Amino acid sequence: MALAILSDGDHARVSAAVSAAEGGTAGEIVTIVTDRSDGYWDVALAWAALAAATALLVLSLFPDFFLAKIDRLTGAWQSEWTPAGLLGLALALVTTKFLGALALQLWQSLKFWLVPPPVKARRVLARAVTCFKVGAERRTHGRTGILIYLSMREHRAEIVADAAITSKVAPEVWGEAMAAMLIEIKAGRIADGMVAAIERVGAVLAEHFPRHENDVNELPDRLIEV
Known about the structure:
Layout: H1 8-22, E1 28-34, H2 41-61, H3 63-74, H4 83-104, H5 108-113, H6 117-135, E2 145-151, E3 156-161, H7 163-166, H8 175-186, H9 190-208, E4 223-225
Helix pairs in contact: 1-9, 2-4, 8-9
């Protein structure tokens, strides 16, 4: 089981911020924090394959150097390498490099450092959209659901809104909420960052979607960790 990112007290603060923000709007705010948005094993396999291919390329360019090294290690006297022996050596080298590079990426910090930023951005956005479709899209009467999504390993956040909101609010309007959130998170105050984003999102929603007297809370206010 994954360790909780936020404490019970942090959860309570974020949930209270959602309730307060929704007090002035018909919009419904959903908050999700996750450790990571993807396992990136396809990227890890690509790096391992590249390491193996590079090793094979170097062997093909400088065969005499490597064969002499192997002869010295094995104590052989300029042994004659057969085609079968060379193929076996190449296979062993490729397998060792591939598995070694894959094993190194079990170190999560290195693994995530090796993931190109554009790949992280696409995967985080895709996961945020998936979570939004499952937890918020078309689940409110007026299509006024909005998701604030934070992915810790990738150091990225996304705000995804339902149709009624996107028809009135341009995506760049959420930039202030994102900036306020990231300032706090970079300082290690994750809950404060979520609260700051919720307050700014709530202010925008209140401007475009004021709360009605008969408004019903259609989505849970609690912070979700996945």
